[in-house]
Amino acid sequence: MMRERAVTAACLLLVLALPGQADWTSIGPEGGQIYSGAVTVGAAPELFVGSINTNFPLLRSTDRGASWFLTGGTLANYPQQLAAHPTNPDIMYGVASSQFYRTTNRGATWSAFSLGSNTNGNDIAINPHNPQVIYVPCYRWDGSAWRMVSAKSTNGGVNWTVTQLDTFASTTIYSAAVDPVDTNVVYMGCYAASMTSVYKSTDRGATWTKHDFPTNAYYVYSLLVDPSNRNVFAGTLYGVYRSTDLGQTWTRQSTNNYNYRLVFAPSDSNYMFSASYSYVYRSTDRGLTWHISSSGIQGTNIRTVLVDPTEPGAVYCGSTAGMFKSTNYGTSWQAVNNGIVIGRIPTLAVNPHEPATVWAEFADNDLFKTTDNGATWAPQSTPLSCGNICGIGFDPADPQRIWMLEGSG
């Protein structure tokens, strides 16, 4: 097929240095799918982000997103979530499939620890007062069905014990949070028995109690506890919900879909942000109301949003087009992709009338064009109804006419 005849296996557009040699030089475009991320602690925090693209690259920035480089260490699968140690900037964590990963040298190397057989983790929640205690919400196959379980480590992720939350089968569990005021309290977000629910433990994960939402919002992708008043926020498939009674009851605060990650701005906790697939949503009243705040962001599948505790107003998000940064609490955004060259390019074409002009499609429908043999690239607009582009052709008689084949017809 045309897509298969294109450069499906490539992660980047590459140029052969000399005929007959196997050395390639990356010429972009910069960017690529960012799936998860974390910010380290300290006076000069560093940014780490992970991708679902080929070889699951992990990238690091030591200059607040101005430049990025590969960490050197990699994971065996793409990181569902990354997390930073709350007091030690050298230590980072990741969870990918059935493995929990830890680095003690800022990503140079990673050690893998099993969460248990037939167990897949989705999030990381660390006790801020005792970082040796870590929780991971997991699916576990028990031979007949997938069950919701909590994996807990008391030695920094080396060893794990698993506790089943409930007896329901064919359920989903994506998120976890530790109450920063009372760390005996742990929350996990689930879709169980056809109902959106948050499970709560008051004994450090030994036992769990189910609390249903008033309406079905399906999956609970993210959980966040406000340290000032212990209000709990849940980012779901259908809106952001808030609990003011420690998870007993829930009220819907927004209607935006796919709330993959929720964060407070440390410099002003009136600001909250949600990574919401096509947009970043912002609240300026501590989660009561929410509005789109995505000016300047390109791409889709926004799954991570990060804040820098040492730079007031600084917010980061990742999409299919790479990383973006705001310095004004999300009012406007700029791409910060210097060094991020991890995009998958399933389709590219050289203009036969202008050989220096090349069109390339990033996966997930991000279209780029270069007119100088790849020295610079510019994003191109596509029709709103356009699906993934799987072929690009040029009219042999009209150099201004371009044909594209896309997945929506």
TrEMBL record:
Q: Does the keyword Repeat apply?
A: yes
Q: Which UniProt keywords apply?
A: Repeat, Signal
Coiled-coil regions listed: none
CDD domains assigned = Sialidase_non-viral
> Which Gene Ontology terms describe the biological processes this protein takes part in?
xyloglucan metabolic process
Sortilin N-terminal domain location is 58-164
Q: Which organism is it from?
A: candidate division WOR-3 bacterium
> What InterPro entries does its record include?
Sortilin_N, WD40/YVTN_repeat-like_dom_sf, Xyloglucanase_GH74
The signal peptide annotation in the UniProt record is 1-22
> What protein name is recorded for this chain?
Sortilin N-terminal domain-containing protein
